[in-house]
Amino acid sequence: IIDRDPVQIAISTGGASPVLARLLRTRLETLIPAAYGRMAEVMGSFREQVQARFTGINQRRRFWEDILHGPIAEMMLAGQEKAAIESLEYALEHNVASHQGEVYLVGAGPGDPDLLTFRAVRLMQQAEVVLYDRLVAPAILEMVRRDADLIYVGKQKNNHAMPQEEINALLVKLAKEGKRVLRLKGGDPFIFGRGGEEIDTLSEEGVAFQIVPGITAAAGCASYAGIPLTHRDYAQSCVFITGHLKDGSVELNWDALIHPHQTVVVYMGLTGIKSLSAGLIGRGLSPDKPAALVSKGTTREQEVFVTTIGELPKVVEENNISAPTLIIIGEVVTLHGKLSWFKPALESHPGTK
After folding, report:
1. By the 8 A CB rule, do 261 and 332 touch?
2. DSSP secondary structure letters along 93-150
3. pLDDT tens, 85-120?
4. 8-state DSSP, 42
5. What's 231's DSSP letter?
6. What is the DSSP letter of 353?
7. Which of 5, 114, 147, 155 is catalytic?
8. Three-class SS of residue 291?
9. pLDDT tens per residue, range 213-260
10. Active site (annotated) includes residue 133
């Protein structure tokens, strides 16, 4: 039991591991200040006033969330109780909870929930409406507030649940209705995530927004595959590219991609894998240049296929590899066998015999 009277937190493993329960309690004790108990008492003493001031449950919840995430809570934690109570009375009188909505543009990372930032988790718990993409892992979606409205706006080839322009308009509409809106995107919203287009619309419409970067797939998947994107002996630069353009074609600056001592990371490259392989080889890259496909990276379903540029299309076809899959090209791929540390249920294996 963690006692912050009247706040009580119980931890149990159902008898499976009392030692683990004690470890969790020790960690939580360091995260939950003793002043939380007194804070709960003060909030309780204001309940009737808040109920009289705000008739709707959403208004009351918004008011208390503003208090708990703002300077009044910090005053309580710092022992300035008198100043905190005076500020709480002022906030109640002036209705600080009635303000326009806001959009949280949050990067959900490559799949492992442990890779989320503290700020991302906090905003995920505050949002009233969530617009989420196809690449957001189910385990991450489970971390949003339970009573939030979930709206799927994912995209895959030739099947967009909602066109981008409609997503932009919906974000504006919901925020102007006074809602806290979470736009949850796989990876990082500013790396091939079209987050720039969304906040451009929000800015034009005068809608407040916050941006929380996430671990992009290149960093997350490469790390979990044991493939350094840069290495003093193998690669001094790294280039991120997308495997298809707006019209589905693969038109890249090929000459810039064949420099020695460089790692190339390809997002969304499965559909155009044949054109990608042929284009690089046609510009002079050796067919034997090491390459890796990291499928469902950072999750328990992760698979790593180590192959070469020339064999990439064959490996994709023979193993029925599907999205989300990241392609890494360069000598750094040869380090996978030595540096691979993440051992999910599915073992990594060579893509060619």
Report:
1. no
2. HTTTT----EEEEEE-BSS-GGGS-HHHHHHHHH-SEEEE-TTS-HHHHTTS-TTSEE
3. 998 998 888 876 555 678 999 999 999 999 998 889
4. H
5. B
6. -
7. 155
8. strand
9. 999 999 999 999 999 999 999 999 999 999 865 565 677 899 999 999
10. yes
User: Which is it for the CA torsion 308, 310, 315, 318, positive or negative?
Assistant: negative
Q: Which of 112, 133, 185, 188 is catalytic?
A: 133
Q: Which residues of 110-126 are buried (b: 16+ CB within 10 A; e: fewer)?
A: bbbbebbeeebbebbeb
Q: Is 157 within 8 Å of 178 (Cβ atoms)? A: no
Question: Per-residue pLDDT tens for 6-19?
Answer: 999 999 999 999 99
Instruction: Mark whether 114 is an active-site residue.
Output: no
What span, in angstroms and rounded, lies between the C-alpha atoms of 180 and 24? 31
Claim: this prediction has a pTM higher than 0.85: no
How confident is the model over 131-182, as pLDDT tens digits? Answer: 999 889 899 999 999 999 999 998 766 566 789 999 999 999 999 998 889 9
Distance CA(118)–CA(29), nearest Å, equals 18
**What is the token pair recorded at 3?**
């006692």
146's tokens: 């339970």
